[in-house]
Structure formats: structure tokens, C-alpha cells
Amino acid sequence: MTTVVPTGVHVHLRPEPTAILLTAVLLALGGCAGSGAHDPDGHRPSAVASETHGRLDAKQDVLIDSCGMELDRLVVRFTVTNDERQDYTYDLALRFQGETADEGIAPVQATVDGLLVRGSASQPGHASVAYDGNGTGAEYKGCVVAEATRTAA
After folding, report:
1. Within a domain: 119
2. What residues make up the domain containing 24?
3. Could you tell me if 69 and 132 lie in one domain?
4. Do 67 and 92 fall into the same domain?
5. What is the pLDDT of residue 56?
6. The dihedral of CA 128, 131, 136, 140: what is its sign?
7. Span 108-122, mean pLDDT?
8. Per the structure, how many domains does the chain have?
9. Do 35 and 97 share a domain, yes or no?
10. Is the pLDDT of residue 106 over 80?
11. Whose CA is closest to 110, among 148, 75, 71, 70?
12. Lower CB density within 10 Å: C or N end of the chain?
């Protein structure tokens, strides 16, 4: 269900006719359709056309500041930056995971629902889950943004 794409990996999205039509309409209306990525043919992929301003994906708005064990909980601290003028409400799923999938460490996920981030602002936050293991939680080597969505507030 969730696909994590490592930083620096480029994903080529196939353009769809509705995305091309939407781009043409936005350009005719003076919109900012040119602010996103284009495929090699100059068309805007549907994933880009669905968010016509700013960033392609709400995941890109989330920066993980720290990730680790605090008392008996796994805690991730993050900052969400909203570069748009409009206020947005974010829903996040943050995953604690081992260094590699081969380690046999089951990923654990914490969620944040309804985090309001004002336009042109940043909002720090944190999420935590109970630690069910034995030890210090050191088997969890890091955190990733598994899912992120934003809706206009």
C-alpha cells in the first residue's frame, strides 16, 4: 500500500490525457501549472497536475528531526513546512524501521491526524508508539515518512 522512494531516486510518471487537458486549462487561465515537473515530452504527469501549486507530494513538506527511544516509547520528532499561502491540515504516518528488511525487525508506525500548518509557516510536532521489544529500541535505525496527505484548512 505504501511505497517509500529513497531521496535522489527519480520516478517517471506516465502522462494521462486528463492531466494534459488540465495543464492546458490552467495555462490558459494563467495558473501555475508550470511550477511542477514535466515528463520528457513536456507533459505534466497526473500526479503533478493533481497538485498544481508548490510541491508534488505532501511527504516533501515533512522533515524528520529526530527518531529514537524515550522512556518506554519510540518517538519521532518532525517539522512540517507549508510553503503555500493557504493553510493546510496534514495527516502523517511515520514509520520506525530497521536498517535493512533482512534484519527481521517489524516496522512500527505512528500516526498524526489533523496537524494544522498555517500558510508560509512551519509547525514542529512529534508522534510516538509504545515499544514492545526487549532492550533499548536500538534495533530501530531510523524513521521515514510512510504516508502524508494534506487538505485545505
Report:
1. yes
2. 17-49
3. yes
4. yes
5. 63
6. negative
7. 97
8. 2
9. no
10. yes
11. 75
12. N
The cell 517539522 sits on which residue?
79
**What is the 3-class SS of the chain, one letter each residue?**
CCCCCCCCCCCCCCCCHHHHHHHHHHHHCCCCHHHCCCCCCCCCCHHHHCCCCCCCCHHHHEEEEEEEEECCEEEEEEEEEECCCCCEEEEEEEEEECCCHHHCCCCEEEEEEEEEECCCEEEEEEEEEECCCCCCCCCCCEEEEEEEEEEEC
Under the banding of pLDDT at 50, 70 and 90, the label for residue 101 is: low
Residue 69 sits in the same domain as residue 35: no
Q: How many percent of the chain have pLDDT more than 90?
A: 50
Structural domain includes residue 84: yes
User: Each residue of 70-88: pLDDT tens digit?
Assistant: 999 999 999 999 999 999 9
In a domain, 10, yes or no: no
Across residues 85-103, what is the average pLDDT?
A: 89
> Is there a domain that residue 1 lies in?
no
**pTM for the model:** 0.64
